[in-house]
Amino acid sequence: ALCDIGFIGLGVMGKNLVLNLADNGYKIAAFDLSQEKVNDAIEQDKEENKTDSQRVYGCSSYTELLSQLKAPHLIVLSVPAGEPVDQVCESLIGAGIQPDDIVIDTGNSLWADTVEREERYKNQFILFSSAVSGGEVGARFGPALMPSGSPYAWTRIKPIWEAISAKVDPKTGKPIERVEPGQIIEGGDPCAAYIGPAGAGHYVKMVHNGIEYADMQIICEAYHVLRNGLGMSCDEIADTFEQWNQGPLDSYLMEISVEVLRHKIEEETPLVDLILDKAGQKGTGLWTAVSSLEVGCPAPTISQAVYARSISSFKDMRVTASELLQGPTQKTLSDEDKQAFTMRLHDAIYCAKICAYAQGFQLMKLAAKEHNWTLDFASIAKIWRAGCIIRAVFLQPITEAFERNEELENLFLDEFFVEQLNKYQANWRQAVAEITLMGIPAGALSSSLSYYDSMRSAVLPANLLQGQRDFFGAHTFERLDKAVGKRYHVEWSSQERAIQKI
Ligand code: 6PG
Q1: Which CATH number does the domain 5-198 belong to among 3.30.230.30, 2.60.40.10, 3.60.15.10, 3.40.50.720?
Q2: Residue 213, marked binder
């Protein structure tokens, strides 16, 4: 019998998505340029298959793949973003793909490439996109999916996507764990909801990753200050994180940080002490930061997280500078002081996390306006509650904030977050001051605080800035004491310094 879905790209993510689809009763025709990966996927499926019938069929060409599928064909791509996506699309055209066939790009493509691709291929096939979050375990047992593109294609994809996605317990808002091959979760809110037209889904996934960078960096800064400022061991830090993971900071990223910190080499050396401190990045965090500048949406917590990765990559330069540049002399803290500081650090992390999400959601809102997308932010927060890398209990109050007000401009204006920030800002401020005096870099925690203080400033020094601009470039300014929109200019260099109305 013919297969339901064609699958191209059997790397770690692809293979796990294939097995997840197979668990949910779909028959898959699988292809990869590497025959070894095809064989590997078939082998693993044999091991995990709990049914009597074959679930995954290997193909050795694009033509064979199409011939194995029911028409109109539904093909899922899991290939690296960029050129490889176009290479596969062109190969499918060469193999005779039809205009009503659907190709779903599940990679982290740049959203603008997706918009352009949908247009370019529209007479040859329907390009749909659906970024996947959750890493390999998510792909295998339930990722968060951010589908976007043709609404017609979505009607076909929806039942499949809802079946394979992560599920949330509607009563608690918490993920329903699925860890066994073949295990199917009945009920639960699926972490797959239609996002919008072409590009919208990839944009939302890009911002997810920007927030992911910020979340990771905030945790790393906390680790850094506990390790170097307070001299705690990796196990002690893991204990602290574990404790924090019981409260509002409860998140997947905090959970995996505990595991990384506990991992030992030969039962004694913490592995993390041996990992080279140079961070990699594949681009999505950087794209978010770039987009925030283009859209004009301040996102310093996210951008700082990207900078932190960049500065980490200059290892040799840092080592040289560390011999040259001085910092404060280290003070030893009493156990009591350490404890009090750790509590304030917790609040600082929480507030910085609020900033990262406030920035990410505002960015999506402004981008949606610019591109004419209608995004449902409550629904986006909901699908991030499980399956994805930033999953956290924290997504529940964000969901509720957007349910209270779907037009909410920034989380800083929501009653719950106002209350939280007011409650914890003093501790956050003190923690950042203490970390600064310790001489430990904490760009995400401190730039978040500066974002917070800017946001709550009715008056900023942009008045002087406008004066400077007018001085050297006659850029003009508005006045508080005159009608809105009227522009003024000063003849700064002339004797009389006359003010002119423009
Ligand atoms: C996810 C992840 C995933 C991947 C990113 C980030 O949501 O499952 O974000 O897409 O880990 O590509 O990778 P970098 O840290 O290498 O940029």
Answers
A1: 3.40.50.720
A2: yes
How close is the Cα of 111 to the center of ligand 1, in Å? 15
C-beta separation of 211 from 357 below 8 A? yes
Ligand 1 neighbours by CB, cut-off 6 Å: 108, 133-135, 209, 212, 280-282, 284-285, 388-389
210 alpha carbon to ligand 1 midpoint, in Å?
10
Is 405 a known ligand-binding residue?
Answer: no
**CA torsion, ordered 271, 273, 301, 291, to nearest 10 deg:** -60
Q: Is 245 annotated as a binding residue?
A: no
Cα maximum dimension of the chain:
94
pLDDT tens, position by position, 333-357? 999 999 999 999 999 999 999 999 9
Ligand 1: which residue has its CA nearest to atom 10?
A: 133
- Cβ neighbours, 10 Å, residue 255: 14
Architecture of domain 202-455: Orthogonal Bundle (1.10)
pLDDT in tens, 383-409: 999 999 999 999 999 999 999 999 999
For the CA of 388, the closest atom of ligand 1 is 7
Pocket test for ligand 1, best of 108, 215, 390 (most atoms within 8 A of CB): 108
Q: Facing residues of 58 across strands?
A: 30
Q: Regarding the domain with residue range 462-501, which homologous superfamily does it belong to in the CATH classification?
A: 6-Phosphogluconate Dehydrogenase, domain 3 (1.20.5.320)
Q: Can you give the residue ranges of every domain in the chain?
A: 5-198, 202-455, 462-501
Catalytic residues: 205, 212
SS3 track for 211-229:
HHHHHHHHHHHHHHHHHHH
Q: What is the mean pLDDT of each run of 10 residues along the chain (502 residues)?
A: 95 97 97 97 94 94 97 97 97 98 98 98 97 96 97 98 95 86 85 97 98 98 98 98 97 98 95 98 97 98 98 98 96 95 98 98 98 98 97 95 98 98 98 98 98 98 98 96 97 75 72
The CA distance from 138 to 271, in Å, is 25
